[in-house]
Amino acid sequence: xxxxxxxxxxxxxxxxxxxxxxxxxxxxxxxxxxxxxxxxxxxxxxxxxxxxxxxxxxxxxxxxxxxxxxxxxxxxxxxxxxxxxxxxxxxxxxxxxxxxxxxxxxxxxxxxxxxxxxxxxxxxxxxxxxxxxxxxxxxxxxxxxxxxxxxxxxxxxxxxxxxxxxxxxxxxxxxxxxxxxxxxxxxxxxxxxxxxx
Length: 197
What we know:
This protein starts with a strand and ends in a 5-residue tail after the last helix. A three-stranded antiparallel beta sheet has the order 1-3-2. By secondary structure, it is mostly helical. Helix content is 41%, strand content 9%. A hairpin with a 3-residue loop joins β2 (120-124) and β3 (128-133). Residues 4-12 and 188-197 have low confidence and may be disordered. It has one domain. It is built from eight helices and three strands. The chain has helices spanning 13-26, 30-37, 56-65, 83-91, 108-113, 136-143, 165-186, 189-192, and strands at residues 3-8, 120-124, 128-133.
């Protein structure tokens, strides 16, 4: 199981309603789904469709930089429950940051944030987005619930890397509304006059 997120047009009624209205005006919603992945400007350039801290890239980067704390959730549990692993990481020069080994030639966070990384997953279509990392350890560390050989009996806690939830759904709906308004403002007033716009 890979560490990725799959978003589609199901499960959130407000999002579905906004995107349904948006679909009537401009059809392909690929730009909106691209904005879920990374900060993308409105076509008129006036601002982002979805602010960076709510995008998948922005929130995951913030999580790696802040030990898990980001727009969507609190910090990951520290290594205090895993004393032998903490000592091992210190001895090997791995640093103190969670889920990052300092000096690593292939850090896990690059598989999420570098589009050229061989284990990066990114598929944006007109109906959804699939984004994340295919690294097995990303999925394992995100889910937790396993033990390490150096800390027998200690269950590694979940340290979710990709989080979206209701805040993300709300930002997706707002982004759809921003994009719709941008498109409406750019259209000829005479054509949209019958809709009261």
